[in-house]
Design a protein that fits this description.
The protein is elongated, with a radius of gyration of 30 Å. It is built from 30 helices and eleven strands. The longest helix is centred in the middle third of the chain and has 42 residues, at about 285-325. The protein has three domains: about 5-170, 3-Layer(aba) Sandwich (Rossmann fold), CATH 3.40.50.300; about 180-265, no CATH class; about 270-535 and about 575-700, no CATH class. It has a seven-stranded mixed β-sheet, sandwiched between helices. By secondary structure, the protein is of the alpha/beta class.
Length: about 700
């Protein structure tokens, strides 16, 4: 029988930890949250050999065993054996061979926790380019733990790494000696703690003296440690500073003995030369705009053909079922509820995949961090800093993980401002709405033979959402009274080739999440809408049906046109129609009819529901082979004018761009801010802003 063990991946940020995790686990991974905190938890399974099946847990990146941010506390508790959910059997520490000195501080601390450790050296090709040479055997001897050279991008050294991990797990190999004499840092305090907590080694005892409130639930034990600290005059700051100095002294001697590092002035790296261009005070911003332009043009260029194919396939499928199945309530439910709802989901998968794929390429190449650097100056003017850029750009994909990632912003005011404005960034849920409205209102024109007008409008929406986020932040910074100094420190990763396998994994994962998670909501609301659209109060629907049956009997030559009018009138008398007509006076100034009103209500659960709602409403009204886009294009008001004019479509785009229509985002904001005050404020200000801007846009273009 195979034994199940836990391997935790740890390392400094940008050390190649996530690349190794993806290389080890492939598609056999899942993402969630650590219990009780909004911090990403990535887990996966691998088979080491016949003896071991392994859970691999990718812990958040951290520079040392003294945490500051929420994600660092998560990693810290696991490594201190203070997390009940995850007990590590082996620590797999990822160290950047090109920057080994800094990585060895964290490595030395983990060695002294006495958890079995394997060190995986990454970035070896980069170290070679820098002229760095490492004596692996000598390093292994001095550290007292196994050291393996790997290249997870090319899957080199992975099999050897698995063998070493299995061997360490079997032997429960510990470093034979401490990296430094930890007990000498505070001998009396350590000894006193170990008298009532004998399971703690010297180094862990020091950490319990410093952070016992976070590591121990038992208040009696906490009080005892407090008493020890007071009785022995334990000084946490002094002890920590002395520890770090001793560690770096030993690291310096290990580096001198085992690592040859040439004079950094001898060789200028490729990354430095590229940064001279991409981070230029003028050209850098133009290049950034060009990158964003290509990003949004590509969403249309690359997705057009698969989307057309999916749209055509569902139109044909609907026509086939309409002609084949009997005219009963269950066939109506299947065709106009399930198939129509499913079509509203699947058609946007190509664009979702392309958007996430391109964003992943920007992250992999190292350019995403440069965007933060370029934006810091602008961000500070509106009350944010460069660290706010990453959550805001992540907001283009989804506001939920983007808001969770603001925990990296130490400044409380800047973090709160980032949380409040990030939902204004145009997330992927808005993409289906933008796509169908642009297709309805913007002609398919090309300038200079390759510049798509529709792509330019799409880019304009994303740029405008960014501008509105910055404008709102600028206004709010005067009202949020938190005074705290802010610093922007960012490590720029070296430029690398994108990991195409990783890009593919992300594209598949994100499209799966969209289809499964968003699809559940869309399908559920589609089915509810089908019911609300097919049934009404009292006998109103039956009266309409009887009236038109008589008219058709009297005018058999006009059967088709009368049936279409009858289906429209039945929809108006349904529960959905009555609800839409109730709110129509409120939304009429924006150019919307009652059907759009229904979509606005249903999509407050999630924005992407808009398309599913329209698919259901128009499928209920008409049963033919027309695609949803064609049905919406042909839609008219009672006076015969088109519903989706340029003014209405632009107004609707503005509303969806600015309104808070995502319950999940509000829930996450509440969890991050620990109060309902800010999500309620966020919902109100975004809804009012959306209404006002939509009204102004409609008045301009009407």
């Amino acid at each position: 029988m195979q034994q199940n063990i836990n391997i935790v991946l740890v390392g400094n940020p940008n050390s190649g930890k996530s690349t190794l995790f993806n290389s080890l686990t492939g598609l056999n991974q899942k993402t969630g949250n650590f219990p009780g905190v909004t911090v990403d938890k990535k887990t996966g399974k691998i088979i080491l050999n016949d003896e071991y099946t392994t859970n691999v847990i990718d812990l958040p990146g951290t520079y040392s065993l003294y945490p500051r941010r929420a994600d660092e506390w998560v990693a810290y508790k696991v490594l201190m054996n203070a997390d009940e959910e995850i007990i590590p059997d082996v620590v797999l520490l990822i160290a950047d061979a090109s920057n080994l000195k800094r990585n060895l501080l964290f490595c030395s601390q983990i060695i002294d926790t006495k958890i079995p450790v394997v060190v995986a050296l990454t970035m070896n090709d980069l170290a070679a380019k820098k002229g760095i040479k490492i004596d692996i055997e000598g390093l292994e001897t001095d550290l007292g733990v196994p050291v393996v050279e790997i290249n997870p991008r090319k899957a080199k050294g992975i099999q050897e790494l698995k063998k070493i991990i299995a061997l360490v797990a079997k032997q429960k190999s510990l470093s034979k000696r401490n990296f430094i004499d930890n007990k000498s840092l505070a001998p009396e305090s350590v000894q006193a703690v170990q008298e009532f907590l004998p399971e703690l080694n010297d180094y862990n005892a020091i950490h319990y003296l410093i952070n016992h409130h976070q590591l121990i639930q038992d208040t009696i034990v906490q009080d005892k440690i407090n008493q020890v600290a007071q009785a022995t005059n334990f000084n946490a700051t002094k002890t920590q500073a002395e520890e770090v100095m001793q560690r770096y002294q030993r690291i310096r001697s290990i580096m001198q003995k085992n690592v040859f590092v040439p004079d950094p002035a001898e060789k200028k790296l490729f990354s430095d030369r590229v940064d001279n261009i991409l981070l230029h005070r003028k050209w850098g911003y133009l290049i950034l705009l060009a990158v964003l332009f290509v990003l949004f043009q590509s969403i249309f260029w690359l997705a057009q053909y698969p989307m057309d194919l999916i749209e055509y396939s569902f139109a044909q499928l609907t026509g086939f079922f309409s002609n084949t199945l009997p005219n009963t309530w269950w066939s109506n439910l299947f065709i106009n509820g399930i198939v129509a709802g499913l079509g509203g989901i699947v058609i946007f998968v190509p664009q979702i995949m392309i958007l996430f794929g391109l964003i992943t390429i920007l992250e992999d190449t190292g350019y995403m961090a440069r965007i933060s650097f370029l934006s810091d100056k602008l961000m500070r003017k509106v009350g944010l800093n460069g660290k706010s850029v990453m959550p805001m750009i992540s907001g283009f994909a989804c506001a939920v993980p983007a808001i969770m990632s603001t925990r990296n912003i130490e400044n409380k005011k800047e973090r709160l401002l980032t949380i409040l404005v990030t939902p204004l960034m145009s997330c992927s849920a808005r993409l289906p709405v933008y796509t169908i409205l642009i297709a309805l209102a913007i002609p398919e024109k090309y300038y200079l033979g390759f510049l798509s007008l529709q792509g330019l409008v799409m880019m304009g929406l994303y740029l405008m959402s960014t501008f509105m986020a910055l404008l709102v932040s600028f206004v709010l910074k005067w009202f949020i009274k938190i005074n705290e100094k802010s610093f922007f420190i960012l490590e720029l990763p070296l430029y690398r080739n994108p990991r195409w396998k990783n890009v593919g994994i992300v594209m598949l994962e994100k499209s799966k999440i969209f289809v499964v998670e968003a699809g559940k909501i869309i399908m559920m609301i589609s089915l509810v809408l089908w019911f609300l659209s097919n049934y009404g109060p009292g006998n109103r629907m039956q009266k309409v049906e009887q009236h038109y049956e008589q008219l058709i009997a009297q005018n058999p030559t006009q059967t088709d046109s009368l049936e279409k009018i009858a289906s429209t009138e039945k929809l108006e008398n349904s529960y959905a129609g009555i609800l839409g007509q109730k709110i129509e006076p409120v939304i009429k100034p924006l150019g919307y009819d009652w059907k759009i009103g229904i979509a606005l209500i249903t999509s407050f659960a999630a924005r992407e529901v808009f398309v599913g709602t329209m698919a259901t409403l128009y499928s209920v009204e008409e049963n033919d082979k027309l695609s949803l886009r064609e049905k919406m294009q042909a839609a008219t008001k009672p006076d015969g004018t088109k519903v989706y004019t340029l003014a209405t479509a632009l107004s609707l785009m503005m509303f969806y761009m600015l309104a808070m229509q995502c319950m999940s985002t509000l829930a996450v904001v509440k969890r991050e801010t620990k109060t309902w005050k800010w999500p309620i404020f966020q919902f109100i200000y975004m809804t009012v802003l959306a209404y006002v801007v939509s009204w102004v846009v409609y008045q301009i273009f009407v």
